[in-house]
Design a protein that fits this description.
single chain; alpha+beta; Ribosomal Protein S5, domain 2; Pdz3 Domain; 2 domains; six-stranded mixed β-sheet
């Protein structure tokens, strides 16, 4: 056999070995790819309005206000192979990230899914509160027990879903009120919590204990602010998790509750978390979300200011990036886009 033939044979064998190894070797990385987008002004996969409002006048809308998502491959129990990771590193629409970016080492995949589901639920509630805040519609809050820690004083006395109405006789309407009072309480001192459960009033007097750090008095409950809205807003999006659709939910609600369409028929997409007072927060996977939006037909993409630098560096052709610091800013920008009057803040590096 000639030297040339021997070299080719050896190279072929090495390629074959690498191919076999690459196809079976699992690596602790996750591939992030553009996911589906959904029009918040449209319908869900059951043909029902994605956002339905009852008990308040609504107005016709048109165009698109799409929220965007990221899909992934990999993770504990289903890791991608080495070749998939290598292809992803060279693909323009895929990001390969360490597994712990999506699945923290101290959490199971089931826990991550549950957290994402909860984050979406919180996002929807925050979006509703932010939209009504933008429109000047009064919203009241209530303090609800999210969880009770086993072995703590509240275990057996309070349950998830209980509404805390008073602490030591003083009415409370926000978690910050409760935590502010508890911060002043001496460890071991009792507290009396009035609550409502299934329409019935109750009270629980509990002796406080030290938190894990030994510095604060606690009774072992996790609380959250929930909102009382003057009319019904229902958001139905199916099996999608995470908080990043908040901004787009809020915009759709504002659009439905005000005369004249915000989009004037434009295809607008975007992303961003939202707080009840309308502040827009950053998200992950901005590059994949922009690609998904452009593929769906979007020409404008609303971008949280803290994502602007990354977004501007990888913007798809034909997609205009508009910076969104707050819900109010986003509404003003859309009005300026459709009217041709006013300034529209751009995303820059």
């Amino acid at each position: 056999m000639s030297r040339r033939a021997a070299t080719l044979t050896l190279a072929s064998v090495l390629v074959l070995v690498l191919a076999v190894v690459g196809s079976v070797m699992r690596v602790p990385y996750v591939a992030l790819m553009p996911g589906p987008t959904s029009n918040t002004l449209g319908t869900n996969d059951k043909g029902q309005p994605l956002i339905r409002i009852e008990g308040r006048q609504t107005y016709p809308d048109q165009g698109h206000l799409n929220f965007t998502t990221v899909t992934y491959r990999g993770g504990p129990g289903g890791r991608i192979d080495l070749f998939t990771a290598l292809r992803g590193w060279f693909a323009g629409d895929t990001a390969i990230v360490p597994e712990e970016t999506i699945f923290p080492k101290d959490e199971s995949p089931k826990q991550v899914d549950q957290e994402n589901t909860r984050a979406m639920q919180d996002s929807q509630q925050n979006a509703e509160a932010a939209a009504l805040h933008e429109l000047g519609v009064p919203v009241t809050t209530r303090v609800v027990v999210d969880g009770v820690q086993k072995g703590r004083p509240a275990d057996g006395a309070l349950k998830p879903g209980d509404e805390i109405t008073a602490l030591d006789g003083a009415a409370v309407s926000s978690v910050s009120q409760v935590t502010g009072t508890m911060a002043k309480r001496a460890i071991g001192a009792p507290v009396t919590l009035a609550y409502t459960r299934d329409g019935k009033q109750g009270k629980a007097t509990l002796k406080t204990v030290a938190d894990p750090g030994g510095k604060r008095a606690v009774v072992g409950i996790v609380l959250s602010d929930q909102y009382k809205f003057p009319f019904k807003i229902d958001i139905s999006i199916g099996d999608i998790g995470g908080p990043s659709a908040g901004l787009m939910f809020s915009l759709a609600i504002v659009d439905k509750l005000t005369p004249g369409p915000l989009t004037q028929g434009r295809f607008i997409a975007g992303t961003g978390t939202i707080t009840p007072d309308g502040k827009v927060g950053p998200i992950g996977g901005i590059q994949q979300k922009m690609i998904a939006a452009r593929r769906a037909g979007a020409t404008v993409f609303l971008t949280p200011k803290d994502n602007c630098a990354d977004a501007a560096g990888s913007r798809p052709d034909g997609l205009r990036l508009v910076r969104a610091d707050t819900l109010h800013d986003a509404v003003q920008s859309l009005n300026a886009l459709t009217s041709g009057k006013g300034t529209v803040p751009a995303c820059t590096r």
